[in-house]
Amino acid sequence: MEERTGIDLERVDRPGKGPVESITARGSATPAEHELIVRDRRFDRGAMVPRWWHSNDPVATAWYNSVSASLPRGEAFFIDTLRDFREGLPPKLAREIKAFTTQEINHTREHVAFNRLVADHGYNVESIDQGIQAMLDLAAGRPKEFNLAITIALEHFAAIISRQLLAKSEYLDGADPVAADIWRWHATEEIEHKGLVYDIWLHATRDWSAWKRYKTRALVAALITKKYFGNRIRDAIGLLEQDGYSRRKAKWSLYAFLWWKPGMMRRMFFEWATILTPGFHPWKHDDRALIGKLESPYADAVMPAE
Questions:
Q1: Regarding the domain delimited by 55-298, which CATH topology (the fold level of the hierarchy) does it fall under?
Q2: Among 21, 157, 192, 249, which one is most buried in terms of CB atoms within 10 A?
């Protein structure tokens, strides 16, 4: 089995910049020079996005609204989980937890604001938040490593969705510009920090056998992704019912959107499945080039920091 125990630190020389710490070998594929950047974006609160903000399509809008409504509670869980692993971390990981936490706090702030806009259109999204809490309550009383495995699974799901959004413009074509910019900004930082939780996992479980580490994370990934994805479908169907869809029509319209056209779930299935393989690491798929796509197109939507 390819998974190794532990994490080594070494000094790597960068031309003109001197040595830097990096996580190397023993299971980590995070690029040595990779760093997390906090982009404190605040999007235009005064620009009321349309009720069907994605291409005037209730189905596309319902899917993204379902995901957005799930994020604040989930991101708080990620932050709380990593807080339990700060002691004794290698310095680079300790610094990156701080950047990760700030990124996730910013994401939560903007999605809370976005979710208020959704609610202002008459949608009930409170039950979605409550459903996320009920799912996360399943981890109550379990070892803290279990919470870390849940976070790995959900961060992996977030990263591959983010890769799809940034690599294929068709997913957000026709969307309201402010809403689309929120999703692209969030997707950029999800890709950027996609390996951090896994590297913390490698450090935290360095005394586990390779089999125990693999079995735990693969089982949790399969179970929690199924639960999360199933809940997102359930909640998107609920939003469509609020638009007057019958349950049957809502279900088939959503499945067609997710699996046929544009078919994001179909396209990303095998990428998701890599988490079930020995030797998995998020950065074995190097998509840093997508991070650079954020650099210019957001000025019209961003407000100055308060």
A1: Ribonucleotide Reductase, subunit A (1.10.620)
A2: 192
